[in-house]
Amino acid sequence: MARKMLIDGELNSSAAGEQQYDFDLFVIGAGSGGVRASRTSAAHGAKVAICELPFHPISSEVIGGVGGTCVIRGCVPKKILVYGASFRGEFEDARNFGWELSEQINFNWKKLLHNKTQEIIRLNGIYKRMLTNAGVTMIEGEGKLIDAHVVEVTQPDGSKQQYMARHILIATGSRAQRVKIPGQELAITSDEALSLEELPKRVVILGGGYIAVEFASIWRGMGVTVDLFYRKELPLRGFDDEMRAAVARNLEGRGIKLHPGTNLSELSRTEDGIRVLTDHGEEFIADVVLFATGRSPNTKRLNLEAVGVEVDKTGAIKVDEYSQTTIPSIWAVGDVTNRMNLTPVALMEGTCFSKTVFGGQPTKPDYRDIPCAVFCVPPLSVVGLSEQQALEQAKSDILVYTSSFTPMKNTISGRQEKTIMKIVVDSETERVLGASMCGPDAPEIMQGIAVAIKCGATKAQFDSTVGIHPSAAEEFVTMRTLTRRLTAGDKPKTNL
Ligand code: NDP
Predict the structure, then answer these.
(1) Which domains does the chain show, CATH number per domain?
(2) What is the percent of the chain with per-residue pLDDT over 90, rounded to a whole number?
């Protein structure tokens, strides 16, 4: 993609002899990436506008809402439901700690739903205020490109308004994709799953990714019967195989019925519920069927083709290392570019964009050693390379250290669930290439480990760090015994 890097030396949009612009930057989409880019660009002195659709807090019909997927229908409401669902395990575990709970413990879904919605409305307000306080002009409506410097916004009442901007940033995110099988319209996606009016009794989930295992844990924690179907032998393709196996064990241990190597072939409505047919010829009846089968970039209604902004075969906007598209004045960040579809990554891309374009400091996002977490119960969290990736990429032998133990809390509660941890080390440089953990608090622990790995910590430096006792986290600095040494061509092991 050879093209001119259009970076502003000065921001005076009305400079003599220049095109008259309404804004230095017009952002389409007020999700994580768009909001961050707007605020940081404004802080660099740019005159910024951002457009976003209004949202209805309950209905999942309307997409949009300042805050975007993460705040309105993603990470935040999901985590609130994970918290809600986790109490079931806590109640079970409490008994051996002396708590005498009555046999009947009731869960009020509508109360949690209401409180969750109130929190989302509060956060939506905070995001709007943050933009206003940063001096960003907010425009309600759906934006589309007219040319390299013009955005047209269709407002909720149908009226249209055009704005000229020196730079345009597309941050329209992604949306859940559906599987094309007969009866697919009977299934819901995570958008609706976060706001169901009634808590279902029986749920079928298709998919083995983040959303599938997270919702399996949420619903199971709320007492729902959950059947989880996925195409591979283990869920969470792309994660360390031993961790995937641990997640599968834990899901099963918590009462979720797993159906590996199985796809759905048809859905139909019956009096008793939705009839689900699998590709193995089995039949199930469910109140809710969730498709958690990936997300695709939100690019269809942006008029990209007419303006010359290229997309790849998945519909994602093609960008260079600085998030610049094939049109020099148009940029894109976040899920719409399908690089690494995580909120903190969109935030990083938004910050790098504003530094590059308005801060006089061309900055590429750094995709190395990005930690992430899957909020199933208990959670999985990883940073750096998995054992499999290390074997593929490393030039020298790989040293694998593992720990599998019963967390102290479970020794009393009696819960049959182990925590597992792994560190993968380069034998020559002794640098820790990756770490993973499946167990309580894994995401909280992994954030700190990520700092160490980002700084290039060696195994010896992990070993010389004093532990916090008694904690699960201290295992990361006390794994002294080598579990295995692997040479290129060896197969990764799954012993834990
Ligand atoms: P994922 O890409 O994580 O997983 C998609 C799953 O759907 C895979 O198991 C895939 O199977 C399966 N699948 C895809 N197509 C089909 C099909 N035609 N038939 C049957 N199964 C199919 O997507 P999610 O929807 O779970 O999440 C979307 C993205 O959102 C994630 O990738 C992540 O970037 C982000 N996210 C992050 C979270 C976090 O950080 N905690 C939480 C939730 C979402 P297979 O493996 O066989 O291809």
Answers:
(1) 14-176+296-357 (3.50.50.60), 184-293 (3.50.50.60), 378-486 (3.30.390.30)
(2) 91
